[in-house]
Amino acid sequence: MKIIEPFFHIQDELDSASVAVRLEACGRVCYKSEDKITEDSAIPFVSKIAAHGHNSVLEMAVLTFRVTCDPRQTEDLLDCQPKFLVIDKLPDGMLLTGSMRALKELYLQHPKNQLVNDLLLVLVGIVPYIFEKIIDRHKILARDSSIVITKMGLLEIDQLPVELRLRHRFVGVKFIVNRAVTHELVRHRPCSFLQESQRYCRYSEDKFDNQVTFIKPMFFKEESEEFQVWKKAMEQAEATYFKLLETVTPQAARTVLPNSCKTEIIVFCNLIEWQHIFALRTSSAAEPSMREIMIPLQKEMQKKYMIC
Ligand SMILES: Cc1cc2nc3c(=O)[nH]c(=O)nc-3n(C[C@H](O)[C@H](O)[C@H](O)COP(=O)(O)OP(=O)(O)OC[C@H]3O[C@@H](n4cnc5c(N)ncnc54)[C@H](O)[C@@H]3O)c2cc1C
What we know:
By secondary structure, the chain is α+β, with helices and mostly antiparallel strands. Helix content is 45%, strand content 18%. Helix 1 crosses helix 2 and helix 5 crosses helix 6. It is globular and about 70 Å long. The model has no long low-confidence stretch (mean pLDDT 96). Flavin-adenine dinucleotide is lined by residues 187-190, 276, 280, 285-286.
């Protein structure tokens, strides 16, 4: 067995990547198959994932659009009560941010809305491998020339007035933590998540160094008796897991794995939700293992994104 300290990684290197590259990098965390990433593996991976209904992968990339339109069209869109989108009215239209999933489902639920129709036509040009199939299967309306939809770049989003930037700027963080911490993280409902799957990962394989990895609990000093008790329990859990793997699948064997098991989770949300998470998860009332990771992350995010 392996014992490691928890850590995090702000995925800002993916901010400048294409949608497909970003989705693949995040989606492969579930299977721990990052070794399969090649120069042209992204689009086939994303297409397969979308066909299988592993929809949360499509939540890991957002696009922001500046829409210039008649106020009536803004109201028509808001009347649809779009879900999982960030929309802010502007004097001449709106700012709209959505994940690939939210944008896809927006069209499927409201195909007759002119603005939604026109947005789909713009999306097909940017990410055809996600939106082309919809075009093939639906009766698409002609574009309305009075609606102007422009994709915004990251630099432009970062220069928005602060209240808009906090809502439209999304940041992904990969946490390498124990399963108790991820149980708490997934309670933050506005976020999107992707997590290493104990159903698909077989820790007896070479790529896991043929061992289960555990996160060192911050509660016990390494030389303490409690630490030795904990370590023995992990060794027993690992031995039982390997014994079960001789005859059953990882999803059955994982039932003996404890909270201390190392896992990877990507949390993706806008800056305003990160501020909310930090307020709750760095306070003295928060769980100590959560604070252990959130306090340094908050400091890093404050520096990078000028948030509180
Ligand atoms: C110290 C501490 C102890 C906790 N103890 C427990 C516990 O014992 N048991 C337990 O089950 N949970 C517990 N929790 C989890 C807690 O109740 C929340 O579920 C979790 O912190 C997510 O935060 P949130 O609900 O404020 O916001 P998020 O889910 O992050 O959502 C952000 C904001 O969106 C809005 N929002 C999202 N969804 C809804 C909704 N459905 N309705 C209305 N508004 C919504 C709210 O304004 C919310 O503040 C604990 C959390 C902390 C920090």
